[in-house]
Amino acid sequence: MLERFANETFRNSSPSWANACVGNNGSPGIVDYAEGFANAANVLLEQVLENRGLKHSTDTFVYPICFNMRHAIELYLKAAIGVFPSLVHHDIRLTDIDVETSHNIGRLWNYFKEHAAKIDRRYLDLIAQLDRGIADFAEVDATGQVFRYPFDRDNQKHLTQLAIINLGVLWKKFKLLVEKLKDLNRLGARLVDEYRYKTYTANLSRFDLICVAYSLPPRADWPTSVFTDAKNDICSRFGLSGQEFSKAVKIIERNLEMAALIDAPKPFLHLTVTHLQLFFDSWRDYHDLDKLRRQFKGVPNDVDALIKEAESYEAFDLRDILDDKRDVRMTAWPRLSNEVTPEAFGELSAMFYFSRDRLHYSEAFERERDYSIRDFLAKRSSGEDEFRHSVFHLIEKTSALEHVANTLRFFGKLDAVADLLERCELTDYTAQILEESSIWMQSRYMEATEAMGEVLKHPSCEQLALKRPGDGAGR
Fold first, then answer.
1. Backbone angles phi, psi at 157, to 5 degrees
2. Contact, 212 vs 101, CB < 8 A?
3. Among 39, 73, 118, 327, which residue's beta carbon has the most beta carbons within 10 A?
4. Origin, by domain of life (predicted)?
């Protein structure tokens, strides 16, 4: 282990709030550095502008302000370029650039623009918004020398052609520029998360495939001319050949999330409607559903009832609750263990965590499912006690129905959702229970609509009017 360095100036001291964490103590990344320089520039600007240049001279503070701004831009660009290796696919190739040693923001920006446009079209809008602002800084100080020294290496004075820099203009322009640079890096991080699942074609990202799925008619209408018209429009819009369109359609049909967008939800690998019913019948008997109903209604706790309960607590025997739960366990376990496989429990568990952890990508659900199935198989191999404990650990979760229902809806299983809510007598609270998936689906729909520049169809899974069992054909 390396011995920590310190000297008389750079060291730990009091007060503790003044100690900055650096190096491996907090592990700041390049974006953290960029934000630090950007914030420093803004703090200096505020100080100068608040006092109208009387306390802090505009003529001297302009240099550290602009240097910090320019360096922040450089670091944001290097961070944005840094994600490219995780995004390249098919025939896309990155040309060489020494990001570590290059300080020319004009060159860095041109490199970013050239490659980002090829990698993912979602970059294009931000490129257009950032182009002028970054070019302004590159024209004045491309390499970071102009605001650090009064003369260049040839002893020529800097900024002789500029004469005046208005700090008020800098304040307005830089704040907007930094927000867009942050958006650029947020988009890059999101794309890294998306691209790691490799759900794309040569010309269509995963998000493009989502847009295509929204633009297609329901699967049942594909034998009609409606599908042909949609195909022609999609091929024209995205510049696709018939072969790549067919490849995109196959991906959509195989993908759990996208198949729901064409009203052709895929079956789960192991979990059946009967499994769901058995599990949630036990869950229903295990929990206080009246309390859940009050929660979904937004009804505050009855304070008088709570006080009365507290006053009678000494006469209350915890063993009564334990005995009650034990009865539920003893009644439920024989059927659960005999009729629900470890693989089905694993898939059910993955549905819970997919919603709870807001994983959003169906590929993440499939990965979680593999892990969960492995765990439940291992628990069963360890003996009945271990297996039973894992199953009831899931049943004991008050939010199990809510999260599983949201996942079922996300994957287009509306009949299953309606059935579970009916069995648990929670149909009146459908909107509240499915709020999480509603928020995510609305966000996805709006993003796709904006990208396509038109109002898209809402697939069945995005509608809340669930049919109850026996109401007719399922959706």
1. -70, 140
2. no
3. 73
4. Bacteria
CA distance 377 to 373: 6
Two structure tokens written together for 397: 């979760």
Contact partners, residue 348, CB within 8 Å, separation at least 6:
271, 275, 276, 279, 394, 404
Mean pLDDT of 351-376: 97
| DSSP string over 97-125 | --TTT---HHHHHHHHHHHHHHH-TTHHH
Q: Where are the alpha helices (DSSP H) in 150-302?
A: 167-195, 206-215, 225-238, 242-254, 256-261, 273-286, 289-297
Q: How far apart are CA 232 and CA 248, in angstroms?
A: 14
DSSP H helical ranges for 25-142: 30-50, 58-82, 105-119, 123-140
CB under 8 Å to 156, separation ≥6 — which residues? none
Question: What pLDDT is stored for residue 411 in this prediction?
Answer: 98
CA distance 383 to 389: 10
Q: Of the candidates 368, 460, 372, 465, which has an alpha carbon nearest to the alpha carbon of residue 410?
A: 460
The b/e string for 198-229 (b: 16+ C-beta within 10 A; e otherwise) is: ebbbeebbbbbbbbbbbbbbbbeebeeeebee
Which two structure tokens, joined as six digits, stand for 240?
Answer: 């696709």
Residue type, 423: R
Q: Would you call 151 helix, strand, or coil by DSSP?
A: strand
Contacts of 95 (CB under 8 A, 6+ apart): 111, 114, 115
* pLDDT tens digits, one per residue of 429-475: 999 999 999 999 999 999 999 999 999 999 999 987 665 555 543 33
Nearest in space to 420 (alpha carbons), one of 370, 469, 471? 469
Quick: pLDDT tens for 263-293.
999 999 999 999 999 999 999 999 999 999 9
- Report the run of H or E that residue 461 belongs to, with start and end: none
| Cα distance between residue 245 and residue 188, in whole Å | 26
Q: Could you write out the DSSP letters of every residue in 271-284?
A: --HHHHHHHHHHHH
Residue 449 main-chain phi, psi, to 5 deg: -60, -45
Tracing tokens 């059946």 back to the chain, one arrives at: 272
> Mean of the per-residue pLDDT values for the chain?
90
Q: How far is CA 197 from CA 363, 365, 367, in A?
A: 7, 11, 10
Which is more confident, 329 or 429? 429
pLDDT-based confidence at residue 24 (cuts at 50, 70, 90): confident
The dihedral region occupied by 206, where left means phi > 0, alpha psi between -120 and 50, and beta the remainder, is: alpha
